[in-house]
Amino acid sequence: MAQTPIKLHYFPLRGRGEVSRLVLHYAKKDFVDDRINPADWATHKPKTPFGNLPYLEIGNEAFGQSMAIFSYLAREAGLYGTSNIEALKIEQIAQLREDLLTEEIKVWKEKDAAKNAEMTKNMNENVYPKVFGNFEKLAKENQSKAGSKYSVGKQLTLADIILFEGTVTASQKDPTVLDKYPTVKGVAALVADVDGIKQYLAKRAKTDL
Ligand SMILES: N[C@@H](CCC(=O)N[C@@H](CS)C(=O)NCC(=O)O)C(=O)O
């Protein structure tokens, strides 16, 4: 990864910042992990490229949009596969997970207990089975085609890191949630044990999202 100083700005959550953090830790890149206190957000907001988080500073340039940011970092870290088709497969998984995260954020934001319970039920009965079922299908197909233990191609990619991070919120609520998706569970366990990521996870503060 390039030697230019990097600062990643996000809230003290995993949310839309965590995949980038995981990629940076995998790459063992020395970076500023700026976690903006929500109380300071109103003053910080006008400094961001698009009025939201995350954003990434590379030297004296700033860039927004979480998926663009983690894709750039993953390409720099050699985590973007070995062909254009593999890149497409990685992006497919990234987009599936973004759809899931959008739903998880809605539940996390809902403070009305009855509405929250209804939304949580929908997550457990419909959203998670659909998304994790798709992750399972894609990873299983790849493993049998490529003869590998990864979700895209024959080596670790951004897709594996996304599969891992995409299951953390659900697994924290129900540690058995991945039992029905053994391939995804295997990929998640593998990512959690990768050098750089493993050490970061050991000291990471637990957050609901
Ligand atoms: N499409 C954008 C969405 C960014 C976004 O909605 N960020 C939220 C946090 S996850 C935010 O900054 N919310 C505070 C605000 O918009 O004032 C991305 O993926 O980066």
UniProtKB/TrEMBL annotation:
All residue ranges annotated as the GST N-terminal domain in the record: 4-81
Domain GST C-terminal: from-to ranges: 83-209
SUPFAM superfamilies the record matches: GST C-terminal domain-like (SSF47616), Thioredoxin-like (SSF52833)
Pfam families: GST_C_3, GST_N
Single GO MF descriptor: glutathione transferase activity
InterPro entries: Glutathione-S-Trfase_C-like, Glutathione-S-Trfase_C_sf, Glutathione_S-Trfase, Glutathione_S-Trfase_N, GST_C, GST_superfamily, Thioredoxin-like_sf
CDD domains, A to Z: GST_C_Sigma_like, GST_N_Sigma_like
Identification of the protein by name: Glutathione S-transferase
